[in-house]
Amino acid sequence: MDIDKYIQNHENAFIWRGTAYVSDIRNILVRFLGPKKTEQAMRIFNLKYNIDSEAETADSRFIKFSENLLAGRIGTASAKILIEGVTKEDKISLKEVLNILEESKENIILNKKLTEQSQELKKLSDDLRNANDNLIIKDRQKDDFLDSVAHELRTPITAIRSAGEILADDDDIPPEIKKEFLNNIITESDRLSEIINDILYLDKLEHGEIALNISENNILETYRKALNPLLHLIQQKNIHISEVNLLNHFIFEYDEARMIQLFQNILGNALKFTDEQGTIQAKFFTREQELIITIFNTGKHIPEEDLEMIFDKFYQSKNQNILKQAGSGLGLAICRKIIQNHGGTIRAENSGLGVTFIIHLPAQTQKT
User: Fold this and answer.
1) Phi and psi at residue 199, in whole multiples of 5°?
2) Which of 7, 43, 45, 38 minimizes the C-alpha distance to 24?
3) CA proximity to 241, closest of 257, 223, 259
4) What is the gyration radius of the CA atoms in the chain, in angstroms?
5) 78: Cβ–Cβ under 8 A, 6 or more apart, which residues?
6) What region, left, alpha or beta, does residue 10 occupy, with left being phi > 0 and alpha being psi -120 to 50 degrees?
7) Alpha helices in the chain (DSSP H)
8) Residue 366: how many other CB atoms lie within 10 Å
C-alpha cells in the first residue's frame, strides 16, 4: 500500500483561507525549536513541495506543517493558538465546506476499508501461524514415530539374531537349551510380525483403505467373543472379571470384527497393567442416542498430562514409574481410529483405584 499517497491526500485536504507571512511563523519556530532545527525543517519542507525559499507568504501546508512541529514541543492546542496569533484567517465558502465534508466522507470509507483489510490480514497471519505450528508438531511426531518404529523393530530382530548366532556357533548345545532358543526365535518373530502388521493396518485405517462392514449385532455377544480368548490369561493372574448390563436392547449397528479387535486391545492393555487379584469390569448403557461402554481396570493411574497421548502411535509415558509393556505399541491408536471410523469417540480417565476407558458409539438404529 502506498502510504505516501494517502499522506499527500491528507495534507492537500487541509483547507485554510487567510494571510500569513513566513517570517512571522519562522520567528515563532526559532523561539521554541532553535534556529538550527528551524532552518533544517524549513529546508525539508521547501524541498518536499518545491517551494521557493524566498517566498514571503505562507500557504495552508506550511501552516499545518508548523503546527505539527510546535505540537511536539508545546502541545497541539498551544501550537494552534500561537500560529493563529500571527495569521489572518478569512471565511471559508459553502462550496469549500462541502468539499471538506466530501473529502471527510471519502476518508471515512477509506479508513473503514483499511481497517477491514487489516483485520483480514491479521486473521490470515494467525491462520498461517497456527498452520505452521501444526506442521512443526506433525513433523516432530513423524520423527518420534520413525524413532519408535526403529526401536520396536530392532528389539525382536536383535533377540532373533542373538539366538541364531548361539545356535550356529555351538553344535554341542543341550537339546533343552536349543529348544528354548528356538522358542525365543519363534516368539520374537511373532512379535516382529505383529508390529509390522499393526503398522500396515493402522496406516490403512488412517487413509480410509479399510471399509467398515456395518451390520446388526448383539453388543454383549460381541464383547464376550473378544473376552473369551483372554480368559485363560485372566485366570492365571487371578483377576476378577465382571460385566454390568444396563441396556434395554442389545442390537446395534457396527462392524463386529473391528469392535472385537477394539475390545481385545483394551482388555489386553488392562490385563498388562492390572496386578494379580485385580479387577476388570465392563459396563453397558445408553444415553441420548449413544451406546456407552466403560471398561475399568485396577491398574496404575495414567499421568494426567498423558491421558490424551496414550492413543498416539507408540505412546510411551515420560513417567519413569510406568514400564513399557511388550507389544506393538499401536493397540490404542488402532482403537481410536476404529471408533472414529464408526463416528464415535474413546477416552481414558483415572477413576477411583484404577483407569476407565470410555467408548461412545452412535446408536441411532436400535432393535429390541
Assistant:
1) -60, -45
2) 38
3) 223
4) 40
5) 70
6) alpha
7) 3-12, 22-33, 35-49, 60-74, 76-85, 94-169, 175-206, 219-227, 231-236, 256-273, 331-341
8) 16
Average pLDDT of the residues of the chain: 80
Nearest to 339, CA basis, from 358, 355, 321: 358
Per-residue cell: 312: 498416539
Instruction: Please report which confidence band the pLDDT of residue 316 belongs to, taking 50, 70 and 90 as the band edges.
Output: low
| Structure confidence by residue, pLDDT tens digits, 58-112 | 888 888 888 888 887 777 777 777 777 777 665 545 565 456 556 656 767 887 8
Sheet (strand 345-351) strand order: 240-245, 279-287, 290-297, 354-362, 345-351
Question: Per residue in 278-313, pLDDT tens?
Answer: 999 999 999 988 999 999 999 888 888 888 888 876
Q: Which three cell numbers stand for residue 359?
A: 467408548
Q: 265 and 334 in contact (C-beta within 8 Å)?
A: yes
pLDDT at 103: 61
Q: Are 30 and 38 in contact (CB under 8 A)?
A: yes
176's grid cell? 533343552
Q: Which amino acid is at 47?
A: L
